[in-house]
Specification:
Elements (H helix, E strand, L loop, with lengths): L1 E6 L1 H9 L5 E3 L2 E7 L2 H5 L4 E6 L5 E5 H7 L6 H6 L5 E5 L5 E5 L6 E4 L7
Organism: Paenibacillus agilis
Protein name: PARP catalytic domain-containing protein
């Protein structure tokens, strides 16, 4: 499956020169991707397309997760217990958010998906 990462043009250039680096988000330190370009564009006009092997991720149904674990502040520690390299969070809208904890599993970066700001 292809995944999309939205960022600024400056950050995109840095990512392509070096590599992805994790940053803090709701699911913990990771590189965040969306299953759609539209979803990724909410985070920046420059979109990087990448492939992450499905075998590296654990899937979470957000609706069930939110009911079972209502305190968002505990989510990063809870997902660490999965001991996986990435988690795919499936939202009721159909969108899937991917948090990659280990950037080394990111493959096949497409350099020219979007050239926005």
């Amino acid at each position: 499956m292809n995944w999309y990462h939205g960022t600024s043009k400056t950050n995109k250039e840095m990512i392509l020169k070096t590599r992805f680096h994790t940053s803090l988000g709701i699911w913990g330190d990771g590189v965040y991707f969306s299953s759609s370009r539209d979803g990724a564009s909410l985070f920046g006009g420059s979109i990087i397309q990448a492939h992450i092997p499905a075998a590296e991720m654990k899937h979470i149904d957000f609706k069930c997760w939110e009911v079972e674990h209502p305190n968002e502040e505990t989510w990063p520690e809870m997902v660490k217990e999965f001991n996986c390299k990435a988690i795919a969070i499936h939202y009721p809208s159909g969108e899937i958010e991917l948090c990659v904890f280990d950037p080394d599993v990111i493959r096949q970066i497409n350099l020219s998906v979007t050239e926005g700001g």
